[in-house]
Amino acid sequence: MTLWLQAAKPLDAAPPRKTPVGPIDAFWHLLNFIAPAVCMGVVTATLAKLIWRRELQMVSWRQLSIWAICSSLLVLVAGLALFGHDGRSATYGAMIVACSLSLWWIGFVRTR
Predict the structure, then answer these.
(1) What is the spatial distance between Cα 89 and Cα 33, in angstroms, rounded to a whole number?
(2) Contact, 102 vs 68, CB < 8 A?
(3) Which residues contact 58 (CB under 8 A, 6 or more apart)?
(4) Rg of the chain over CA atoms, in angstroms?
(5) How far is CA 112 from CA 22, 42, 51, 68, 109, in A?
(6) Mean pLDDT of 86-102
(7) Greatest CA separation for the chain
(8) pLDDT at 8
(9) Phi/psi zone of residue 25: left (φ > 0), alpha (ψ -120 to 50 degrees), beta?
(10) pLDDT band at residue 111 under the 50/70/90 scheme
(11) DSSP string for 33-54
(12) How confident is the model at residue 20 (pLDDT cuts 50, 70, 90)?
């Protein structure tokens, strides 16, 4: 015979309290929210300029990175609004698609 043991819960355990978010915590939450978009935009713009050096010589690195960061941020905000919280894999997948499409648009379609 097998006995299934469960963790015992104290009878007088109070529910966790909700603490207000202070300004420093809000700053760090916002910074951590936008960090994936900024990192994705900077890294992809740098790699695009390195890989397609001749094709992208008319487009500045700054312009590529701004477009990539803005499109990624837009997707992150849309994912937050759609799912109710951030960090979903679907949001990050959509961020990759939006970032690559914006780099393609500004680098190859718009310059012709």
Answers:
(1) 14
(2) yes
(3) 111
(4) 22
(5) 49, 23, 19, 19, 6
(6) 94
(7) 75
(8) 59
(9) alpha
(10) low
(11) HHHHHHHHHHHHHHHHHHHTTT
(12) confident
Q: Which tokens hold the place of 22?
A: 């202070």
Confidence band (pLDDT; 50, 70, 90) for 42?
very high
Considering the entire predicted model, what is its pTM? 0.79
Q: What is the mean pLDDT of the chain?
A: 88
Closest CA to 48 of 110, 101, 112: 101
Provide CB contacts within 8 A for 92, sequence distance 6+: 36
pLDDT band at 11 (very low <50, low <70, confident <90, very high): low
Q: Which amino acid is at 47?
A: L
Where exactly are the structural domains of the chain? Answer: 35-109
Q: Position 8: which residue type?
A: A
Paired tokens of 89: 């894999």
* Distance in angstroms (rounded) separating the CA atoms of residues 96 and 44: 10
